[in-house]
């Protein structure tokens, strides 16, 4: 009785056909999707790095510009033109018009930022006078972080006000010019002043450090994603080649 001819293998690779089975096709698609994802994540991190470098250059340029004055900050001023500029302001703090920005950390310590209305001859502005550690804040003695009771002249950084979406009473999540204007009965500009040295009658509050101008971890993450891409691009085909060269029938016989 004549024997049936053996099924021809694909290019002499006896295990190649099993790599076309539905389960393996799904595996190929999954690996392909992962490769696309990893390389895109790598380029995304490079874009984040470019954005960070542009931000750092922007902050450095603004910090080196001519200091603004209290009059420059008044209602109608463009926050984008003022953000991160140095500013010199003078006036008297109104301790009755004060809020606390919660959930702040500094030097690894939790706490709050104390924001007080400054009234000057050229207008009014909210001033983030500095950081109060949470244990001090919870103790509840406002004299510890009280502002000076005389006219002050201070240099700080201009920051754009945000939108307060939470808080309770005098505690807020962000410095919100619209919210503070309504609370305090004044018309505040859409920026506020952040103190780098701390402004108080005593040692507290502590000054707020300038924003860090490092490049972060974006380059390291980009390299990591590209390494994953190369490993997958080279490693997966090598695994497929090894499987394609194996004879599945021989493996079954040996088993």
The CATH topology of one domain is OB fold (Dihydrolipoamide Acetyltransferase, E2P)
Report the span from N to C terminus: 29 Å
Number of helices: 6
| Series of H and E elements | HEHEEEHEEEHEHH
Radius of gyration: 31 Å
Overall average residue pLDDT:
86
Indicate the CATH class of one domain. Answer: Mainly Beta
Total number of beta strands: 8
Strand order of the largest sheet: 2-3-4-8-5
Q: How does the helix and strand content classify structurally?
A: alpha/beta
Q: What amount of the residues lies in strands?
A: 25-35%
Note the main sheet. Answer: 5 strands, mixed, barrel
CATH architecture annotation of one domain: Beta Barrel
Amount of helix: 25-40%
Low-confidence stretches: 1-8
- Indicate the overall shape: elongated
Describe the 3D structure:
With 255 residues, the chain is α/β, with parallel strands linked by helices. The chain has a domain at 63-195: Beta Barrel (OB fold (Dihydrolipoamide Acetyltransferase, E2P)), CATH 2.40.50. It contains 6 helices and 8 strands. The chain has helices at 22-63, 79-82, 134-139, 177-184, 218-245, 248-254, and strands spanning 68-69, 86-106, 109-120, 123-133, 152-160, 167-168, 171-172, 191-195. The protein is elongated, with a radius of gyration of 31 Å.
